[in-house]
Amino acid sequence: MNVNEHEEPQHQSGDDTQVSTGAPHETSGVPEAAIPELVIISGMSGAGRSTAAKCLEDLGWFVVDNLPPALIPTMVELGARSQGNVARIAVVVDVRGRRFFDNLRESLADLESKHVTRRIVFLESSDEALVRRFESVRRPHPLQGDGRIVDGIDAERELLRELRGDADLVIDTSSLNVHELRAKMDAQFAGEEEPELRATVMSFGFKYGLPVDADLVADMRFLPNPHWVPELRPFTGLNEEVSAYVFNQPGAKEFLDRYAELLRLIAAGYRREGKRYVTIAIGCTGGKHRSVATSEKLAARLAAEGVETVVVHRDMGRE
């Protein structure tokens, strides 16, 4: 991903967001329907937070960049008193306001007690991609101090570790350009109605590494590889002959049935916990045959059960 197209890494600029704190934090007396929907955008510096925020802004969200976490409940309160003019708020929280960052968990607990619908979007990227982006714009990482860029990245990962674990949606931008990131944000937020659960089913090749944004990973390498069948080798798992070969193998259909049953159990738990997004990664050696065929079948099962599902074949065509 070209950082100049995606997001310029940002230096520490202080906490210069101007927000009136005159309104009380309590939402008592405000109808619950008037409380704005809230999205918190965070993640690694250089991973695309600004692009994600701009996408939501284009979709009609009220976006506040670099808001100190302690002021998030105040912003929600102001939105609740806007008589419906501010129905959806997106807040970018990052290490530029790191002296306020410890207040984030307290603010999230405050929002939960007031029944505010909030989601956390975390932008992730590999160390190699982040270093390349910072070097391309010749800017220091906001946490590197007198050290190297990788030192700043390591410090930021540690600071954000807990927040990443709490995220509802993790997007790995390592290989995405600005248009692909916007497409992912649009897929999650552009719908008129908010579904109960959205699933991304992603095929991948283990030889290219695990997807860092996967919530669940399944390994299809227990099935024979169509790569070793000469007439199937040139095709992918999207081909009917390859799919038929994969699912005629012992254990293939049983795996699909049992994994779909397991996902029903997990999905019910996600809904109870308020998690709206899940990324299910299905892997094989090269991400071309078995994982692709299984991803397509699994996505069709999920869609038939009312789960809004997107299929992504990360490594197909990469060989």
Describe the 3D structure.
- There is one protein chain.
- By secondary structure, the chain is of the alpha/beta class.
- Helices cover 38% and strands 17% of the residues.
- The protein has 11 helices and 9 strands.
- The chain has a 5-stranded parallel β-sheet with strand order 2-3-1-4-5, with helices on both faces. A 4-stranded parallel β-sheet has the order 7-8-6-9, with helices on one face.
- It is globular, with a radius of gyration of 21 Å.
- The two termini are 20 Å apart.
Quaternary class: single chain
The tally of strands reads 9
The helix fraction, in percent, is 25-40%
- Structural class, please? alpha/beta
Record the SSE blueprint.
Elements: H1 3-6, E1 37-43, H2 49-58, E2 62-65, H3 72-80, E3 88-92, H4 98-101, H5 104-113, E4 118-124, H6 127-137, H7 149-166, E5 169-172, H8 178-189, E6 198-205, E7 216-219, H9 240-247, H10 252-272, E8 277-284, H11 290-304, E9 308-313
Parallel strand pairs: 1-3, 1-4, 2-3, 4-5, 6-8, 6-9, 7-8
Helix pairs in contact: 2-8
Summed up:
The protein has eleven helices and nine strands. The protein has helices at residues 3-6, 49-58, 72-80, 98-101, 104-113, 127-137, 149-166, 178-189, 240-247, 252-272, 290-304, and strands at 37-43, 62-65, 88-92, 118-124, 169-172, 198-205, 216-219, 277-284, 308-313. The strands form two sheets. It has a five-stranded parallel sheet, sandwiched between helices.
